[in-house]
Design goal:
alpha+beta, BirA Bifunctional Protein, domain 2, seven-stranded mixed beta sheet, three-stranded mixed beta sheet
Length: 237
């Protein structure tokens, strides 16, 4: 326990980590944080995305499995080291609980922005204006758009993606913070014509920023995954 939060370190396949959270299922009445790390690369689709958005042949050749989460949004590529994946559980009735699904992201977005502020970067903020498409690929790729609570750099590039799923016991928030951004590995396994693949790679390259890359560009030291996770835990209310 840290500051009223139970801390859970979870390691496994992306499909397993999204399927259930045993500690929360055993005791849904307490706040919880899970530091998640996959054992192999996977592309995670949003709850309503058809599996046909992925070219299975290309994904198999790249050693990338396909998983699905029960929250909305577009595809996210997760690897053993990037992005930093942290899940948070809030019981219904908790002071941080909000009945409005959009406003429910406010506190977790602020926590992420505060945590990443420890890099010394200026202009980081938690988005508050609903969903915005940064590129035409926002319906296909999670980081192609910005939703409520998600963290952006001063120039508008997205750093942290958030998603939420709910049941009668509470809300489960998924958080993914990019350390170093390269859209090519994800775009390469999408089922797209080659011309559109090139266009998507170029557009997404300018829409997203890795926090470690930004810190180093500013003359600082880029944080690693464990440091970012520790910062977030320290920033939780």
């Amino acid at each position: 326990m840290t500051g009223g939060w139970s801390i859970d370190e979870r390691v496994g396949a992306a499909s397993e980590l999204h399927a259930s959270w045993p500690a929360v299922e055993a005791d849904p009445g307490d706040r919880a944080v899970a530091l998640c790390r996959v054992t192999a690369p996977a592309v995670v689709l949003g709850s309503t995305q058809p599996g046909s958005v992925i070219d299975r042949r290309r994904a198999g050749a790249a050693g990338i499995s396909v998983a699905r989460r029960r929250s909305g949004g577009g595809a996210v590529l997760v690897t053993e080291d990037d992005p930093v994946w942290v899940d948070v559980w809030i019981p219904s009735g908790d002071p941080l609980w909000h009945a409005d699904v959009a406003r429910a992201f406010d506190w977790i977005g602020s926590a992420w922005a505060s945590a990443l502020g420890r890099t010394g970067l200026e202009g980081l903020s938690s988005h508050r204006e609903g969903s915005v498409a940064c590129t035409r690929w926002s319906q296909l790729v999670c980081f192609g758009g910005v939703g409520t609570g998600e963290v952006v750099a001063g120039d508008g590039r997205k750093i942290v993606g958030l998603a939420q799923r709910r049941n009668r016991h509470g809300a489960w928030f998924h958080g993914a913070c990019v350390l170093r951004w390269d859209p090519a590995p994800l775009v390469d396994i999408l089922d797209l014509p080659e011309a559109e693949r090139s266009e998507a790679t170029a557009a997404l390259a300018g829409a997203v920023a890795g926090v470690a890359d930004l810190a180093e560009e500013a003359g600082g030291s880029g944080p690693d995954a464990s440091t970012v996770a520790d910062w977030l835990i320290a920033a939780l209310p």
